[in-house]
Amino acid sequence: MYDTHMHTTPFSSDSRMKIAEVQQYVRQTGIGVVLTEHMDYEFPEPKVYEFDPEAYFSAYAPHRSDTLLLGVEIGLQRFVEGKNQTLVCSYPFDMVIGSIHAVCGRDLYDPSYFQLFPDRKSAYTAYLEAMYENVRSYDDFDTLAHIDYVSRHAPYENSILLYEEFPNLFDRILECLAAKGKSLEINTRQFGDGRAVAALRKLCCRFAESGGRTVTIGSDAHDCGSIGAYLKEAYQLAAACGLTPVYYKERQACMAL
Questions:
Q1: CA 135 – CA 66 distance, rounded (Å)
Q2: I need a surface site. Which of 25, 98, 102, 175 has the fewest CB within 10 A?
Q3: What is the arithmetic mean of pLDDT over 161-167?
Q4: Which pLDDT value is given to residue 152?
Q5: Any coiled-coil ranges, and where (predicted)?
């Protein structure tokens, strides 16, 4: 099995995990990993999620192996597509994750994003519309991360993002991903909440019904205690939806067990 989404210090500014801790995990468990450091160009201040790719490959390339691969998580925003494309074409990443971390110039972890909207439906609609526009417009990524990201810090009593509430928007996103041959990520960060898992299961099944074939599975770990969290449960979810777990090596999909 592979955990295909995690972040290390110093290349991801919000991470506390060192590569030595990742290597120890790999040795102890036999599970493969993909490092996917944040590159979110022009992210809303005061946060900075950028790193020096030359330094990244200089430091980590000697540790690269069949079980430790080097990827990147790019922030999808229409006005940085050129920068993303230059980055992806200039460096030998094994895997490129596409993510929506900012909408309307606001960090989705910042309460000010939700204050832009009169209600929950409007805030979630804007997020999903931005997601669709970005996956429609930009091609050079391998998997779409944490489709339910906006719900992580949403200030609503019922924050779970449900397919049934936004079927048309979700269908456009999932059909676009499937048509482009992209993977959908099963991100395990919210697997401690059964309601979130059920909602994600519905989205994965709908992805399969839309022609999607593959998923990547990632813990989104920022500390060593989170690597591999709920990995087995996520693989079981993929199987239940008829989707094949993969990881990417040299930008090519490889079947995971």
A1: 29
A2: 175
A3: 97
A4: 94
A5: none
Burial of 152 (0-12, 13-18, 19+ CB in 10 A): middle
Q: With 90 as the cut, is the pLDDT of residue 119 above it?
A: yes
Please state at what angle helix 120-137 crosses helix 167-179, rounded to 10 degrees: 20
Domain range enclosing 244: 2-255
Q: How far apart are CA 78 and CA 82, in angstroms?
A: 9
Q: Which DSSP string do the residues of 188-214 spell out, in sequence order?
A: GGGTTSHHHHHHHHHHHHHHHHTT--E
Question: How many distinct structural domains can be found in the chain?
Answer: 1
3-state secondary structure at position 2: strand
pLDDT at residue 93 is higher than 90: yes
CB 101, CB 131: distance < 8 Å:
no
Separation CA 34–CA 22 (nearest Å): 10
The token pair at 86 is 């230059």
Q: Which regions of the chain does DSSP assign to beta strands (E)? A: 2-3, 32-39, 68-75, 95-99, 102-103, 106-107, 143-144, 183-187, 214-218, 244-249, 252-255
What integer pLDDT is reported at residue 52 of this predicted model?
98
CA atoms within 13 A on the CB side of 118: 0
Answer whether 215's CB lies under 8 Å from 243's CB.
Answer: yes
Q: What is the CATH number of the domain that holds 134?
A: 3.20.20.140
Q: Do residues 217 and 199 touch, judged by C-beta distance below 8 A?
A: no
Burial 106-143 (b: 16+ CB within 10 A, else e): bbbeeeebbeeeeebeebbebbbebbbbbbeebeebbb
CA distance 140 to 14: 25
**Which pLDDT belongs to residue 38?**
98
Averaged pLDDT score across all residues of the chain: 97
